[in-house]
Amino acid sequence: MTEPLIPPLATSISVSPSAPGDYWALLPCAGTGSRAVAADAHASAPGLPKQYHLVAGQPMVLHTLAAFAGVNRLRGTLVAVAPGDHFLDAYANPSFFTVDCGGPTRADTVLGGLRALIERGARELDWVLVHDAARCLVTPEQIDALIDACAHDGVGGLLAHKLADTLKTATAGPGGIRVASTVDRADKWLAQTPQMFRIGPLRKALEHVGPIVTDEASAMEAMGLHPRLVPGSALNFKVTYPEDFALAQAVLAQRGHGATLERFGSARGVAGAASGKIF
Q1: Res. 31 pLDDT band, cuts 50 70 90
Q2: What are phi and psi of 199, to 5 degrees?
């Protein structure tokens, strides 16, 4: 068995599954996407963060935001950007709001986003769905399925996809990288996002583990908890390499990507006593 990245604490943190809570979304959007080397249509924007590259005629992050705009249960969507990043100002919409709380790592950015949510009225028992801005093919149906599966869970969970390929470990060898061993894939899953946890426990977990974790579930695992795995889709991949852009473009074209901006008609995020929204 693979040892945990960080030894679990002796005492775990959890909230009663029956405790009511609102739902929020948080998109860490402060990365540079260094692996997504500009290519073809993206070469005209050297240095532009990956999440802002055009896919199917719109910045990638807008497709992501459109999916969350289609989930009526969300109280609001916070986009955590790097200080000085005003890219999304041109796309201002009631369905989301930006906060320049981005840090040097994903964990730092998410932690800053959680604190920003609390400062703006979110409660520690509320749920937050943290999602990669570059997973632009997620659908409202998948997000709703995650909420349905985790709303009464004592820990929370994440979308994930069962590993189908044969998995190898590697070692340096003569002439290059060689296979070291084959790993049993029977219990292996690919972690995706959104990852859904209560704001308070997730904040405490991230403060405990520091910036080294690459997803929120790892932080919760370090607290001795076992997040729920909710089956996702192979299409909910993270656009990372140049060839991923072409695949995302094809999928969005098949779906009819014009729906992306049409979804931004929601009144969510606008202050109003009737709706109960605070943004």
Answers
A1: confident
A2: -60, -45
CA dist., res. 43 & res. 103, Å (int): 26
DSSP 117: H
pLDDT confidence band for 33 (50 / 70 / 90): low
Encoded tokens for 89: 């100002």
Q: Superfamily assignment of 23-155+191-265 in CATH?
A: Spore Coat Polysaccharide Biosynthesis Protein SpsA; Chain A (3.90.550.10)
Distances (CA, A) of 218 to 122, 207, 210: 23, 13, 11
User: Which sequence spans correspond to the domains of the chain?
Assistant: 23-155+191-265
Which residues have a Cβ under 8 Å from the Cβ of 33 and sit 6 or more positions away? Answer: 49, 50, 51, 53, 134, 240
Side chain identity at residue 160, one-letter code? A
pLDDT tens-digit profile of 174-185?
999 999 999 999
Residue type, 53: H
